[in-house]
TrEMBL record:
EC numbers: 2.7.1.4
Similarity remark: Belongs to the ROK (NagC/XylR) family.
Gene3D superfamilies on file: 3.30.420.40
Required cofactor(s): Mg(2+)
Stretches of the chain forming a coiled coil according to its record: none
InterPro entries linked to this entry: ATPase_NBD (IPR043129), Carb_Metab_Reg_Kinase/Isom (IPR051804), ROK (IPR000600)
Protein name: fructokinase
Pfam assignment, any one: ROK
Native organism taxonomy: Bacteria, Bacillati, Bacillota, Tissierellia, Tissierellales
Gene Ontology molecular function terms on file: fructokinase activity; metal ion binding
Amino acid sequence: MYGSIEFGGTKIKCASFDENGKVIDDCWIYTGKTEENLEEIGEFYKKNPVEALGVGAFGPIDLNEESKTYGYIQNTPKKLWVNYDLLGNLKKQVCQKIKIVTDVGLSLIGEANKGAGEKLNSSLYLTIGTGIGGAYIQNGKLLNGFSHPEMGHINIKRMKDDDFKSICTYHEDCLEGLACGPSVNKRLGQNPKDADINEKAFKIAANYIAQAIYTYTLVLRPEIVIIGGGLINKEGFIEMIREEFDKIKGDYIPVKESCEYIVKPKLKNDSALIGGYLLAKSL
């Protein structure tokens, strides 16, 4: 059997798959203390032993296999996880054959192979949730330099009169700090699920996300942009992002119609777990 784990900002999803990609068992664990979470993961995989494991983790995380700290979570806002040897502890709890990518990278592997990016040579995935992360895949290979991309922390040009205090502890004007789920929640003063889509906070967030997509489009020229995460499920929000993107890009770059270019994940909430299965099977 093959294992898949998605370490998210609020929850950890674990699953075991058979050879053909059928889910045998799965579980959700709320992201909390490191050792408690790893023990819970270990218990799950004692019941569902696997020969290989594909993992996606929130970052920053060291993905340089030549590094002494390969597989360590680094300077994350989740203070309990800073400098945590995720790979080493997963090897103790689950199995020895493990491959780690970012959480958004894992979702992209799923979508590029079995979802919205299937049969395309290039795809970009952006997740708008507790934080904002991005990943890009070209000809089956995830883009990494000395480390993984940090697409959620690019600078954004603020809209006029937007004096909102960024929720990012590192940057005053980054995409994540101004447009992730918790920042929209704070702008609204309530859960975005319960708010009117016509509230200004959604328009601001849509504009900032569209700015980012335009930047990624100029640099990477992906064939499709897939947006996941909790906030994108708000009815009417992705349409708002497309509208803002069309205004920003104008006629400068030829891309598909925005309704075909900026899309939701075809695999819905299963993108990352399927990506983990595919990653594990490749080992």
